[in-house]
Design brief:
By secondary structure, the protein is α+β, with helices and mostly antiparallel strands. 19% of the residues lie in helices and 32% in strands. The chain is built from 5 helices and 12 strands. The strands form 2 sheets. It has a 7-stranded antiparallel sheet, with helices on both faces. It has a 5-stranded mixed sheet with strand order 2-1-3-4-12. This is PsbP C-terminal domain-containing protein. It comes from Sphagnum troendelagicum. Residues 89-264 form the PsbP C-terminal domain.
Length: 269
């Protein structure tokens, strides 16, 4: 179930300076909003039925000693409604740079994060989405195939991430692997690459210990990064989603929906 709401309202890792030769941040995004679209028609009926669940039986109804059969409890009904609302999305359209995508309605925009646009979950800061665009002056992409095969593009993306996440702390190491790569033709007729990687960070619990057995590496975080790469206007566009590895299975359907919503747009001359 997906609810898309267009609005004027418009990881937690921005790009490091070493990556800005590949991507150029923008001061402010320009976007427009379209009509409201809803694919969930049962919500009003569900909400209206709450009162019926708890209406008192008529006085003529005899009392029975047998265990009565009640409808679902109030909390179950309320939870189902809240779950439906939580799956609402807003569409972000940037006509100045040429791209659009859907993002969870409850996420907030963070400015100054180094990306062209950046949204994150205000509760779970490890969940976010951003868009990066290559510099128009230093890149002349003709198509996403300029990156090579999806597998070759995945290796480039992973190297870029590891550069961003490089740490100067003692005893920190990063483990990473490419989970999946692929290509697909969007409904706009353009070719997109999908890249999925996992990055985990480990740190010693006692960085200053002399004996190796006293320096035990412990997991700090493990994250899944899902990227969509597309080319238009001679520029490379990347949508990047970040979620904790443990949330991937639970949220995979919604994350795939965000990835599929990403489109690059032809800029008017």
């Amino acid at each position: 179930m997906l609810v898309v709401l267009d609005s004027h309202a418009c990881g937690a890792h921005g790009l490091s300076s070493s990556c800005r030769e590949f991507f150029e941040p923008k001061a402010a995004a320009q976007f427009t909003a379209g009509p409201v679209v809803s694919t969930h028609q049962q919500l009003p009926a569900a909400a209206a039925s709450i009162g019926g669940y708890f209406a008192c039986p008529p006085l003529s109804t005899p009392l029975r000693s047998a265990k009565p059969s009640f409808p679902p409890p109030r909390l179950v009904v309320a939870a189902s409604i809240l779950a439906a609302i939580s799956l609402a999305y807003r569409k972000y359209v940037d006509r100045l740079d040429g791209y659009e995508f859907n993002y969870p309605a409850g996420w907030i925009q963070v400015r100054g994060a180094g990306a062209d646009v950046f949204f994150r979950d205000p509760v779970n800061l490890d969940e976010n989405v951003l868009v990066e665009i290559s510099s128009p002056s230093s890149s002349k992409f003709k198509g996403v195939q300029d990156l090579g095969s999806p597998e070759q593009a995945g290796k480039k993306v992973l190297r870029q991430y590891l550069t961003e996440f490089m740490s100067t702390r003692l005893g920190v190491r990063r483990e990473s692997n490419i989970v999946a790569t692929g290509s697909r033709l969007g409904d706009d007729g353009r070719l997109y690459y999908d890249v999925e990687v996992n990055v985990s960070s480990y740190a010693n619990n006692n960085q200053l210990a002399v004996m190796p057995q006293d320096r035990v590496a412990q997991l700090e975080w493990s994250r899944r990064y899902l990227s969509v790469l597309g080319v238009e206007n001679s520029r490379l566009y990347e949508l990047r989603l970040q979620v904790p590895e443990g949330a991937m299975e639970r949220e995979e359907k919604d994350l795939r929906g965000i990835m599929d919503s990403f489109r690059v747009l032809k800029l008017e001359a």
